[in-house]
Amino acid sequence: MATNYCCIISWAFLFCVLICEAFEDAQSHVKPPGMRPAPKLTYDFSACSLDISRHCVPVVQVTDLTLLQCLIDAGLQDNSLSPGCQQTLWNIKLNLTLDAQFLNIAAKYCQKEFNQFPECRVVSPVDQQQNRAHMLSCMAERKENMSAGQCRDFLTQIEMFVFTDFRLIGRFVTACKDDVVKLNCGQLVLSSDVRGEMHSQGATLDCLMRKLVEHPDQELISRQCRHEITRIAELQSDDFHLDRTLFFACRDDRERFCRDVWSGDGRVLQCLINHRTDRGMSSDCASALLLREQMIASDYHISHPLVRACQKEVEKYKCAPQDQSSDSMYYLLSYVLLCLENVLHLGMLTTSTVITNNNSSVYFILLMLLIVTSIVLFSLGIAVDRDCQAQIVEHRRMLMSDYRLAPELIITCARDLETYCKKEAADGSKALHCLMKASQMHPTEMNPSCIQAIVGVLKVADVSTNYKVDEVLYNDCKSIIENECQSDVSNEADMLSCLMNHLDSPDLSEECENRILEIQYFLSRDFTLDSQLYEACRKDAVEKCHAQKNWHETSVGSKGIMGPEPGYLVLTCLYRHAYDEVDAKLSASCLKEVRRVMRERSVSVRLMPEIADACFNDLAEKCSRKTGVGEELMCLQEMFQKLEPNCQDAVRKYTMMQSRDFRLNQALSKACRQVVKIYCLEFAHEEVDNGDIMDCLLEHKGVPEMNHKCRAYVSHTELISMKDYRFTFKFRQACRSDVEQYCTSKTDNADKYSRSNVVHCLSEILIVRIMLGEGPELKKECRKQLRAEYLKLDNAERIIDPELMDVCEADISKNGCQLYETTMLVTECLKEHKLDLEPACRKYIFRKEKLEFNDNTFDGMLQRVCSTEIRKLCSNVGHENVLHCLEGHKDDLAMSDDCAELVSKRQHEQASDIRLMPVLYSSCSKEIRELCKNEYALLKSFPDEDIQGKVIGCLRQWLTEDNSKMSDKCRVELKHVIYNTELDPTLDIPFYSACKSELDRLCADGYATGIGGHRGILECIKARYAEGTVKDETCKQQILRVMKEELADIHLDVNLYQACAMDVRHYCDDVQSGDSKILSCLLSAAQSSNARLSDECRSKLQDRQLIWAKAIKERRDVRPPETVVEFAHFVAGSPARSSLLLALMMSLLIFFACGMVCGRITRRIRRDLKNR
């Protein structure tokens, strides 16, 4: 730095020599301020003595140059120089460049450079003034390409004075004269003896610049003048002091914000630009800086730091435009930035072919094509200098700081700014975010070209890569960024994700939330805007989603708008592939990124364009008040059946994905985080939980850790799953083919996909298959999942089955069932009042009973209450048939009272219809069709109604009248049913219905029910029947029927068999059971003198004989055998008469055969004794 300073002093001395040679007529000297000795000055500054005393006291080294610089600065700052001094300064500056020796001095120091740049030599042999102006401006333009030396230092000194007045810059005067006059930016007179105020033309260049940037769509300024304005701006950008208007407008601000920044290489200008929007920045400086920024936006050459840092890369990768067309200047900085970002993300691309078309519309299309290439492949590692990378970030931040720096925004968004952002437009810094918000709130009213322009700015800014380029976002979210996210984020690219994850944080301000959503709104609509997503998924997007393989190619959207990508279609395609249940083949890195963005953007429907666009009207009409995190989607899901078809389809597709990944429901996942951590941790680490976490949350819905908000979200998920079976991933995955084949394809019902309808359809298929072995068979996985869905409905804390509420609401209220907490308990309550229910409700309950009895695993109450008994007593029985097993152990000591009571209750439910007895139905299906045709017709006519035991009654009748037509399997199962009715006569619906009044009258007191329920009732009514106190004829007939069934098999007369069990084993052990054989054996033994029955058995037989004696009068076929004649009558009237007669005939035949073979067994006596 010391060397540079010495060099400057040396060239200052040389320049003083030049001045002495040019102006030998100087006459006097001016005494410098202070006590310093007076130096020898070349110029006559006597007219400026007072001005020097007032403004130049701080000058340490008094020379012609330092005094000239001081006075010029003072005059430009406040225009306080005296007229005489101003005239003196003007003469010095003008003579400096008009003197004939100027070219000689320039040639002396710049001979080498003139040879290097021959185009800067004399252009006119006649006009020396034009030659000097041309030489000065030409060499100044090429100063940066010169090596350090005399010429460069000479030009640096000259520039300081030349740029205090544009009239000293040669070609500009000629090129812009007409434009200055036309636009009222001042008056140019080309005479060499012009005199005037030194500041009279100072604002002319600023005026032209403002006209240029404020009306980029209008040809207000000629092309040659534009070029000269840009050229001058390029020269001024090198050193802050060269731009005199900016220098004096920002001198105080420079001291305030950039005190420690060294002048040169555009550093001071860039520092001031970075602070332009700061609160302490003066309005004059801010206005001047904005103008310079707008010029930089129109031509990257005007930004000296960018040119200096990136010129090598710009040339290497051909990022510079190939022409200087009027259109290209609007986008030049954007183009260069994007090209350089291409190098960072994509690697070297031949971009020079893009900017060869001068047509404005085509150029914009090509620009947009190039824009999208700037976001992606950092991983390729293409070398870009660190300083260049830093400058790219700085200029991205600059373009994002003010909408006025983007000509396309000015052109296309004027109306929208006036309509939605009038207040913000005045400031500029927040106008872009205002437009982004308006795009969300009024997407159909905004100018599509304006939205396209916003996308272009965001692509250049590349906010997803570095959030800091968006100062509005940074300032509004500073507290979250510097606190919650500081430890969570390792690089700038992850910051937006962190902010999204804290969107519902109480510490997040409303302003920050708005800024985040405004950015994410556009990221969610363009695949290329999220650099992390694009980097991971570019290949998959090209292969699977028809994304453009080369970003230089274009595509046409559905509305005919040319663009780099067909809107959000690529994103939607990636979303679908990420959760494809059949063919999900995205790469691992892409799959992870797609799921990340989907989970983050699930907080708002506005970030789901596939839903937001399809549901625009439904959101406005049905969900306008739902504005919280996730509330809009929840509202749409709740209103699912009422949505427009397109909206319904979009919501269904997203909800299907949500059912597979609970993290897509951000509100749910955050509210239930503690419950998941404690109870569902085994599923929490899965990339996609496939519905496991929701099942876990439903299972633990009553735990104390589940807060009100979590419970509400879980209940919401339960409710919406009822609207469409496809909203439950496991159900959809396991049963899709069965549902499509057997259920939905056979009906056009609008609710054919509702979970209740699908469960009902699949249940019917399952029942038919179990009972009859007919019809289609559900896949094992579908049957398993059908059971899970059925139990989830039953275990719901409130009634979520819409069919149950539709058909049973009145009955629930009437019978007080609304007091129960779960659907299962409500259903149990309704079962207890089944005979009193309305027909529709009764049908609903019967359908549930059919399923539960045909497959006991669907009976959640039985599985829960009897879980221990099932494990201990029925472990070798399939869980679908455990009720049959438990019935056989009802009197077992291992059976708990609760389980025994429930089993008894289930038996009573079964008794109403044979379809609730799957074992009996399947065993006797042939007999039902052939022997009970009328009853079978009832089954067909009333598939969802119980027929009160009519089929069972028919089978029981055939058992006692002619069981030869029944299979052994059917007889065995029917006897099992009869045996249960003997233990509990209330299970015999015809008997209990006919005798209930008599039982209440005659057997209400004095008879213990005994173990297993109502066993004593039957003994009581039989005794009363024998006494003749039973008056009801229908009841008498039912008693006689029961007695006939007992006569068919002693095992069916439970009390008699228990009393005579030991005697049966002793005397009738070899007698085959059935057909009254054991009973006949016992009666014979009772009459034999050689047999000795137990007292209990003999007493019980005597009781039965009294009853039979009474019955013989009512119905002879129930009389037991006593004498040979009565036995013959008994046999003739017995329902097993055929078997008895056959047995009798076989006995006689055997006896006769033995006699024929063995002879007589009595001793022969003499005839005389016989005739005596």
From TrEMBL:
<protein>
    <submittedName>
        <fullName>Golgi apparatus protein 1-like protein</fullName>
    </submittedName>
</protein>
<keyword id="KW-0677">Repeat</keyword>
<keyword id="KW-0472">Membrane</keyword>
<keyword id="KW-0812">Transmembrane</keyword>
<keyword id="KW-1133">Transmembrane helix</keyword>
<feature type="repeat" description="Cys-rich GLG1">
    <location>
        <begin position="836"/>
        <end position="894"/>
    </location>
</feature>
<feature type="repeat" description="Cys-rich GLG1">
    <location>
        <begin position="642"/>
        <end position="705"/>
    </location>
</feature>
<feature type="transmembrane region" description="Helical">
    <location>
        <begin position="362"/>
        <end position="384"/>
    </location>
</feature>
<feature type="repeat" description="Cys-rich GLG1">
    <location>
        <begin position="220"/>
        <end position="280"/>
    </location>
</feature>
<dbReference type="InterPro" id="IPR017873">
    <property type="entry name" value="Cys-rich_GLG1_repeat_euk"/>
</dbReference>
<dbReference type="InterPro" id="IPR039728">
    <property type="entry name" value="GLG1"/>
</dbReference>
<dbReference type="GO" id="GO:0017134">
    <property type="term" value="F:fibroblast growth factor binding"/>
</dbReference>
<keyword id="KW-0325">Glycoprotein</keyword>
<feature type="repeat" description="Cys-rich GLG1">
    <location>
        <begin position="1030"/>
        <end position="1090"/>
    </location>
</feature>
<dbReference type="Pfam" id="PF00839">
    <property type="entry name" value="Cys_rich_FGFR"/>
</dbReference>
<dbReference type="InterPro" id="IPR001893">
    <property type="entry name" value="Cys-rich_GLG1_repeat"/>
</dbReference>
<keyword id="KW-0732">Signal</keyword>
<feature type="repeat" description="Cys-rich GLG1">
    <location>
        <begin position="383"/>
        <end position="443"/>
    </location>
</feature>
<dbReference type="GO" id="GO:0000139">
    <property type="term" value="C:Golgi membrane"/>
</dbReference>
<feature type="signal peptide">
    <location>
        <begin position="1"/>
        <end position="22"/>
    </location>
</feature>
<feature type="transmembrane region" description="Helical">
    <location>
        <begin position="329"/>
        <end position="350"/>
    </location>
</feature>
<feature type="transmembrane region" description="Helical">
    <location>
        <begin position="1140"/>
        <end position="1162"/>
    </location>
</feature>
<feature type="repeat" description="Cys-rich GLG1">
    <location>
        <begin position="445"/>
        <end position="507"/>
    </location>
</feature>
